[in-house]
Amino acid sequence: MKIVLGTHNKDKCLEMMDVLSNLNIELLTLHEFSHIGEIVEDGATLEDNALIKARIVHELTKLPSLADDTGLEVDALGGAPGVFSARYSGENASYSDNVNKLLKDMKNVPNGKRMAKFRTVMAFVDDEMELIAEDCVEGIITDVTKGVDGFGYDPVFYVPEMNKTYAEMSMKEKNQISHRGKALMKMQKLLSERLPKIFHQMEDLA
Q1: Is the link from the previous residue into 64 a cis peptide, with omega within 30 of 0?
Q2: Cα–Cα distance, 87 to 205 (Å, whole number)
Q3: How far apart, in whole angstroms, are the C-alpha atoms of residue 36 and residue 199?
Q4: How far apart are CA 45 and CA 132, in angstroms?
Q5: Which residue from 64, 93, 63, 68 is spatially nearest to 81, judged by alpha carbons?
Q6: What angle (nearest 5°) sits at the alpha carbon of residue 46, between those of residues 42 and 48?
Q7: Residue 195: its pLDDT value, please?
Q8: What is the DSSP string of 20-53?
Q9: Fewer CB atoms < 10 Å away: N or C end of the chain?
Q10: Are 190 and 133 in contact (CB under 8 A)?
Q11: pTM of the prediction?
């Protein structure tokens, strides 16, 4: 079975491929489909955007597709940047642009008031069905960047139970506890229930 990962983000692809590496499937990326350009994510929610991407990729490739949308929801900012996380500091913003804007906006927020949540919604679309899975991780926004791994807001998202930011974790370590990793594991379970012959290696995740 082939599944297309519905994102142009190479970092997301690497994480998703790592989590799904134990399955008996062939994972393709949008880099193998040059006719698919940037997909406009104009949904009002993370679920809307995940489905938009998965549906478009399925339609254009005629293959099952898997896409996510992820948002960082900061309590002190009323849940922002949320669905606008990837473009918090403007269209075509870099990771560092978004991190710097977040740190600036949080400059006067004291310790104890810097709680945040990373939330991922995962969507699977094929000819027969559409599935949704989501999960989240609660953390704290640091006042300086810490760590060099990961991407996006990882250097400022501190997970208390790990005593590390995402950027201080290895990919394997992060994927075991992260919002995207946990949402992918939930999606694997949904798919294993509906496609047991293909996802026969799911017993260990039950």
Answers
A1: no
A2: 34
A3: 28
A4: 13
A5: 93
A6: 55
A7: 76
A8: TTTSSSEEEEGGG-TT--PPP---SSHHHHHHHH
A9: C
A10: yes
A11: 0.90
Low-confidence stretches of the chain (pLDDT < 50) are 201-206
* 155 and 167 Cβ atoms separated by less than 8 Å: yes
pLDDT for 21 equals: 84
Q: Which residues of 155-188 are buried (b: 16+ CB within 10 A; e: fewer)?
A: bbbbbeebebbbbbbebeebbeebbbbbbbbbbb
Q: Identify whether the C-beta of residue 47 lies closer than 8 Å to the C-beta of residue 83.
A: no
Asked if 160 contacts 140 with a C-beta cutoff of 8 angstroms, the reply is yes
Q: How far is CA 7 from the centre of its chain?
A: 10
105 noted as active-site residue? no
pLDDT for res 23: 79
Give the pLDDT of residue 205. 42
Question: Can you tell me the distance from the alpha carbon of 34 to that of 164, in angstroms, rounded to the nearest whole number?
Answer: 38
In angstroms, rounded to a whole number, what is the distance separating the alpha carbons of residues 90 and 198? 41
CA distance 202 to 15: 18
Supply the pLDDT for residue 197. Answer: 65
Q: Residue 99 has what pLDDT?
A: 97
The residue from 68, 69, 126, 135 that is catalytic is 69
Orientation angle between helical segments 179-194 and 10-19, nearest 10 degrees: 50
Give how far the C-alpha of residue 145 lies from the chain's centroid of Cα atoms, to the nearest Å: 20
